[in-house]
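Anyone able to model this chain together with flavin-adenine dinucleotide?
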Amino acid sequence: MATSGLPGHIDPFATGIWDASRNCGDKRLQAFLPNAGRHYAEERNYDLGPGDRSNVSTLSPWIRHRLVTEAEVVRAVLDIHSYRSAEKFIQEVLWRTYWKGWLELRPAVWDDYRMAVDRWHRELAGDDVLRNRFCKATEGQTGIDCFDAWAAELVEHGYLHNHARMWFASIWIFTLKLPWELGADFFLRFLLDGDPASNTLSWRWVAGIQTPGKTYLARPDNIAKFTVGRWKTTDQLATEAAPVAGLAPPQPIALPSPARLDPSLSTGLLVTDEDCHPESLDIPRNIIRSVTGLVCRRDRSPLAAGELPMAFANSAVTDAVDRAGAWFDCPSIALPEGDAASALMDWVRGHGLRQVVTAYAPVGPTQQRLRQLEIRLAAAGISMVFVQRPWDRVFWPHAVRGFFPFKDRIQGLLGELSLLGS
Ligand SMILES: Cc1cc2nc3c(=O)[nH]c(=O)nc-3n(C[C@H](O)[C@H](O)[C@H](O)COP(=O)(O)OP(=O)(O)OC[C@H]3O[C@@H](n4cnc5c(N)ncnc54)[C@H](O)[C@@H]3O)c2cc1C
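re: yes, here you go
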């Protein structure tokens, strides 16, 4: 069993540690590295509570915003561990990649989810009984102690252990009988690492839609064991989990083809909260004339996003824009969230730009917003170029079936990316 005080242990809730900078993400990665081998494989499933996260990395808010990239996490891990001993941790990092690739191949699943969230919020407005049950769940007043504590922890810290996310989603769906889409929306509003692909598809998985017919049932003995006896629920939880109806996995569509930058054009760099490490994108250093940033967190839900995730996303983009200004040796300015399209046009005109380059944003609200901006820019004769990372280009095409066939390819594909000797 894991205990705190391990080498490299940081209490993530100590002052200022959820700092949305690359520097903080990197320090956290370095501190966690010694634990990324066998220790992680054996202990990661224990939810020791918000005061002790020594058995997991808590890197997800940084990786999700690509303040720290998946490639550098894996490279750093393989610098001190063999693939074999760090295999479990590497596979977990690749779950995010798999989910992103899976959704990229089936964007209709995101559209369907977002429409359902809007529909359920309209329903809540006119249905007192449903609204009351929903409010009790999100305010942590259901009388199921563990669930209520996780609801409060989510809002207060913006983080839940993976196992707690699974139990929470299962209780939400099968015990409280609330619509899964509203639970996913609650997570997306409050998680620091809230991510369209990982979140939506994990909720679908718990509900028995993602892997049709296979649901996840939270069991009292499992909760007691993996919370080291902190929570005892005995007979409060559903004992059956019948699959929920939902959109079956559609056939995969074609993935985007690589874009080409025209180095002869006056070019601006747009940083979004989907990718906050522009220095490692494949963009020549001498072509960028100006850098700005865009945060699309508010587009994720019809309800307001939590303060912590908003602050995290804003700081992440600010940190990235500042670093990019220094890296590309050009002016950097913050873009206000309000009418982003008008502000972006002002920025483009003000710097005489003919081309805007940005990291390819995966399926979700940022991609949607960028597509709208692309149309507006095109109308003014300015092109928008989406640069894709080799990591996504190599892994995403393999997210065609379940995780297990994908997992079998990880080692070979890391070799293709020169992250692992063949
Ligand atoms: C219902 C539900 C909703 C979830 N919603 C999100 C979400 O919105 N955003 C999000 O980033 N993750 C989500 N997850 C996945 C997972 O819970 C978190 O990524 C993980 O708990 C992050 O904590 P960590 O950094 O300490 O993970 P570690 O155990 O230290 O894992 C290392 C890294 O691997 C990745 N990872 C680990 N487990 C998963 C997983 N199951 N799926 C995808 N990536 C994983 C993360 O990048 C993580 O930082 C969800 C899981 C469930 C069951």
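Residues 1-15 have pLDDT under 50 and may be disordered.
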